[in-house]
Design brief:
There is one protein chain. This protein is of the alpha+beta class. It has two domains: 231 residues, Glutamine Phosphoribosylpyrophosphate, subunit 1, domain 1, CATH 3.60.20.10; 149 residues, Rossmann fold (3-Layer(aba) Sandwich). 28% of the residues lie in helices and 25% in strands. The strands form six sheets. Strands 3-2-4-1-10-9-11 form a seven-stranded antiparallel β-sheet. α9 runs antiparallel to α16. The chain is globular. The protein starts with 9 loop residues before the first strand and ends in a 22-residue tail after the last helix. The structure holds iron/sulfur cluster. The site of iron/sulfur cluster has 11 residues, from α17.
Length: 466
């Protein structure tokens, strides 16, 4: 995650492994995916009879401790780290969502964003004052629980439009589902005596699971003591994996579609060196996502790679924000230049994206104040011109600096000596997959799933229609 990337979305984990410490496995699965959401964390477990949920605002390590994990015993569990892409940051909106019909219960974690939330809410009479699309889906499923969560899911999932990966559970079974376009990643792993699912393979690695395969677009999977079962709940019209998973969202050690994210980022940097060369003394990354790409840029350009910016890895989402006076004095919570490393040097600075432009401008200024002779900013994707409606929190079109400024105007705004973006074709080529396997809407405005007017983050917080 670089300086000013769009905000991340959510991390999912699920495990079915009787006899194992499932709450601890879920904890570590979430811990590995902390980068995907830092506002709240939660998990649900079941011992076959009762479903327990624990969730709270904060980082995974702030939410859970030994005592809470000890109370969360069971044979299966799901977990969620959240960044709010719909609804506000409140405890109620933390996940997993929990619903019961009095006899049977379900818990659900969602990664993505639905685009037909209003229609679903209206059609379903908006069950139980849902304030997020995830809570709404959980409520709709709960109404059909008598038939069991498998049948309920097969009936409800085809009506959902937009981006969704779900991990779900009832008292006995773990479920995983992925939208027909496969906008968000979801992988299955094998444990010695069970299975797990995770948004990213780095979470499978941390619990010692062996990667089996990705959940297919339009697929519903159920895992219990009868083993894994699979059904297609909808045809996949085309694939549209969010290409930003490669550019900045996923962790560099995760594998998506069989390719390591680090390798793709290195190729992004290599292509950037060809498309946007410059004369300089040192290539530096904006940590952390810039590292792999900066290596690639250095390899092709022959310009030495170095570290010029330090990131405080423990900032996360701190609840203690700097006061206005500290902010005015330029307190740098996240990134700080290393003056001795950069003084007098012409720098190529590799970052993953420019959103509003304000953070990039601060970085350029901080590097100059620390003694850089020249700052050449290079971005590993094309200009972001369109907002995302599929689960990545971006500002409105109006606030995106590239929506109405040319590259030269953005360069002037951020104060860099030069500015270069990677082309769309260059970015796609680095993935090794065809262009039409990806959603690239924030760059080219071609939304793979139609976005109805009024689809926005706080949709369900408006008064219900009568
Ligand atoms: S619009 Fe951009 S950020 Fe959103 S899913 Fe598509 S590629 Fe990803």
């Amino acid at each position: 995650m670089g300086a000013e990337s769009p905000k991340e979305e959510c991390g999912l984990f699920g495990v079915w492994a009787p006899g194992e410490d499932v709450s601890r496995l879920t904890y570590f699965g979430l811990f590995a995916q902390q980068h995907r959401g830092q506002e709240s964390a939660g998990m649900a477990v079941s011992d076959g009879q009762h479903l327990l949920v624990f969730k709270e605002l904060g980082l995974v390590s702030q939410v859970f401790n030994e005592a809470t994990l000890r109370t969360l015993q069971g044979d299966l569990g799901i977990g969620h780290t959240r960044y709010s892409t719909t609804g506000s940051t409140t405890w109620e909106n933390a996940q997993p969502a929990f619903k019961t019909d009095g006899e049977r219960s379900l818990a659900l974690g969602h990664n993505g964003n639905l685009v037909n939330t209003a229609e679903l809410a209206e059609r379903s009479g908006r069950p139980a004052a849902a304030t997020t699309d995830s809570d709404l889906v959980a409520g709709i499923l709960a109404r059909r629980l008598e038939a069991g969560l498998w049948d309920a899911s097969l009936a409800v999932l085809p009506d959902l439009r937009g981006a969704f990966c779900f991990v779900m559970m009832d008292e006995r079974s773990l479920y995983a589902a992925r939208d027909p376009y496969g906008l968000r990643p979801l992988s299955i792993g094998k444990l010695p005596n069970g299975y797990c699912v995770a948004s990213e393979t780095c979470a499978l690695d941390i619990v010692g699971a062996t990667f089996i395969r990705d959940v297919e677009p339009g697929e519903l999977i159920r895992i219990d003591d009868r083993g894994p079962r699979s059904a297609s709940f909808a045809e996949s019209p085309r694939k549209a994996l969010c290409i930003f998973e490669f550019v900045y969202l996923a962790r560099a050690d995760s594998r998506i579609q069989g390719t390591t994210v680090h390798e793709v980022r290195r190729k992004l940097g290599r292509r950037l060196a060809v498309e946007a060369p410059t004369q300089a003394d040192m290539v530096i990354p904006v940590p952390d996502t810039g590292h792999s790409a900066a290596q690639g840029y250095a390899e092709v350009s022959g310009i030495p790679y170095g570290e010029g910016l330090m990131k405080n890895r423990y900032v996360g989402r701190t609840f203690i924000q700097p006061s206005q006076s500290l902010r005015e004095r330029g307190v740098k919570l996240k990134l700080n230049p290393i003056p001795d490393a950069i003084r007098g040097k012409r720098l190529v600075v590799i970052d993953d994206s420019i959103v509003r432009g304000t953070t990039t401008r601060q970085i350029v200024q901080a590097l100059r104040e620390a003694g850089a002779a020249e700052v050449h900013t290079r971005i590993t994707c094309p200009p972001i011109k369109w907002p995302c409606f599929y689960g990545i929190d971006m500002p409105t079109r109006h606030e995106l600096v590239a929506s109405d400024l040319s590259v030269e105007e953005i360069r002037r705004f951020v104060g860099a000596d030069s500015l270069g973006y990677l082309s769309l074709d260059g970015m796609v080529a680095a993935t090794g997959a065809p262009k039409d396997d990806f959603c690239r809407a924030c760059f080219d405005g071609e939304y793979p799933i139609e976005v109805p007017e009024g689809a926005g983050k706080f949709l369900l917080e408006q008064p219900a229609r009568s």
